[in-house]
Amino acid sequence: MQVKNLIMKRIKIKELLQSKEFNKEFVIEGWVRTRRGNKNVNFIAINDGSTINNMQVVVDVPVFGEESLKNITTGACVKVKGLLVNSQGQGQTVEIHAKEILVYGTADTETFPLQKKGHTLEFLRTIAHLRPRTNTFGAILRIRHNMAFAIHKYFNDKGFCYVHTPIITGSDCEGAGQMFRVSTLDFNNLPKTEDGKIDFSQDFFGKETNLTVSGQLEGELAAMALSEIYTFGPTFRAENSNTPRHLAEFWMIEPEMAFYDLEDNMNLAQDFVQYLVKYALENCKDDLEFLNNMYDKELISRLEFVVNNDFKRLTYTEAVDILVKSGEKFEYPVSWGTDLQSEHERYLVEKHFNKPVILIDYPKEIKAFYMKQNPDGKTVRAMDVLFPKIGEIIGGSQREEDFNKLNDRIKELNIPTKDMWWYIDTRKFGAAPHSGFGLGFERLILFVTGMANIRDVIPFPRTPKNAEF
RNA sequence: UCCUCAAUAGCUCAGUUGGUUAGAGCAUCUGACUGUUAAUCAGAGGGUCGCAGGUUCAAGUCCUGCUUGGGGAGCCA
User: Fold this and answer.
1) A283 Cβ nearer than 7 Å to chain B strand
2) A339 sits within 7 Å of strand B by its CB
3) Phi and psi for A427 in degrees, rounded to 5?
4) Any idea what the Cα angle at residue A179 is, between residues A202 and A140, rounded to 5°?
5) So what's the pLDDT on residue A417?
6) What local confidence, expressed as pLDDT, does residue A172 receive?
7) What is the rounded distance in angstroms from the CA atom of residue A276 to the CA atom of residue A162?
């Protein structure tokens, strides 16, 4: 078709769908979801990502000519100029009567993998470069954005300072598992020391370095000056974890607060998560309704329940007691001193309390060295926030600020301290009671979207044996 | 990493006890239809049955190994 005058600025479909300016000309740009019709009239559904809803473009076929519409197939990118009118059809209130159409990019119908029909999430993972164009991933990515924004808004409104902790770390005892090595050494010709080991003094940083598994230790340093801080950045774990809840590269939010005890920490964790879920309910309604209808009929009611109900708080010891007395047949027996299994956590959250649960005061043997020791000598001021379906969404604690107790614990556990002197230093100079926690961003998105697999809530998942795209 | 299930058309799946030329729906293509809504209707094309071995007169089907994916477990956020 001849394109004469398409110089008007485009309007986003989200905005135009709410417009009442009928019989006025507008320009929209987006990707074709479907075209259907007959010799006289065609209907093109166009989506530009501003909303899950499409704009229906009505085309008078004789005016444009059938041949000129052939390129307008599912997946093509177009610019349309036309009049906004009330829709005669049932599925939408307004539509565009096309005057001019420009095809920016075609999409070959034989090879474009996305169909008008639903696809499995497994298949979409194999075409992660195209899956943002589906309703499902459009919804997830918009929700993901809204949650990232709400996280910054929440902390900013509360006076927390966003601190950028390093991605590359030189300490290997951050305490959270296997790390990815960062090196510029030639792997085919590694320099060796006299006793045959790899000579990292010749590496880029002059020492062994890895990708961070947590920004907590550096976060604590900043909290010892700014009082309330948070980090929000990528985190890397080289664990060979093959589950719907783990990624090798994920995003984590780690607030760290001076002068907070464990109860303050729990209050913050609950308020924070409830704020985020409420923000989603208020700002992502269309997307949540889509996910509710397509994937999880209880999604929205579950989100509303979390916003409106306090999380159940109890100690590890009380939880073990409940589990022992439950009469439930667990695959793994419950006993004081061992870590709770997934099935135990699920029982507490999904059967016994039927609401989010915060477990505190775990045995010190199963928790990290930096957690504050209780007077009983057996437990530490740890807290895990457990959510239905996804399990642990938050892990945190009050930190041990006593120099001697921290040092004793480090010695007991034989933790190498040569790369951590700076952390221990904070307990020497103006030590303060403080607390913090880590929230797995993708696990939050799992909960908010109702998705079942963490690979479907991040654009390009990194998992063992998979770094495609 | 362990346990378990699976892999057949572009997608989702069926394929009987091992037995003739491997099927369906959707998608695609062609045509029909004056307002469709995952449009509808008619017809057509489309297969190295994940890969490599093995058993057998005969393997999509049985056996072994590998690869990839799902679910469960561990590690955790």
Assistant:
1) no
2) yes
3) -85, -5
4) 130
5) 80
6) 67
7) 17
pLDDT confidence of residue A160: 98
Cα separation, A335 vs A328, in Å, equals 14
167-206 of chain A touching strand B, CB 7 A cut-off: 176-177
Q: How far apart are CA A450 and CA A421, in angstroms?
A: 43
Point out the nucleotide closest to A249 (alpha carbon to C1′): B77
H helices present in A21-64, as ranges:
61-64
Q: Is A108 within 7 A of strand B by CB distance?
A: no
Q: How far apart are CA A199 and CA A185, in angstroms?
A: 10
| Residue A267 CB in 7 A reach of strand B | no
Task: Indicate if CB(A227) is under 7 A from strand B.
Answer: no
**Residue with CA nearest to B72's C1' atom:** A243
> What is residue A170's predicted lDDT score, i.e. its pLDDT?
87
Question: Could you say which residues of chain A have pLDDT below 50?
Answer: 1-2
Indicate the average pLDDT of chain A. 93
CA-based nearest residue to A166, from A101, A213, A107, A205: A213
Those nucleotides of strand B lying less than 7 Å from any protein Cβ are 1-2, 10-13, 26-29, 32-40, 67-77
Where is A77: in which H helix or E strand?
strand A77-86
| Contact between the CB of A239 and strand B at under 7 Å | yes
Statement: the CB of A212 is under 7 Å from strand B: no
pLDDT digits (tens, 9 = 90+) for A19-35: 999 999 999 999 999 99
ipTM: 0.92
| Tens of pLDDT, residues A191-249 | 999 999 999 999 999 999 999 999 999 999 999 999 999 999 999 999 999 999 999 99
> DSSP letters along A307-358, please?
HHSPPEEEEHHHHHHHHHHT----SS---TTSPPPHHHHHIIIIIIS-S-EE
Q: What are phi and psi of A64, to 5 degrees?
A: -85, -30
For residue A84 the two structure tokens come to 């906004």
Q: Where are the alpha helices (DSSP H) in A133-202?
A: 135-157
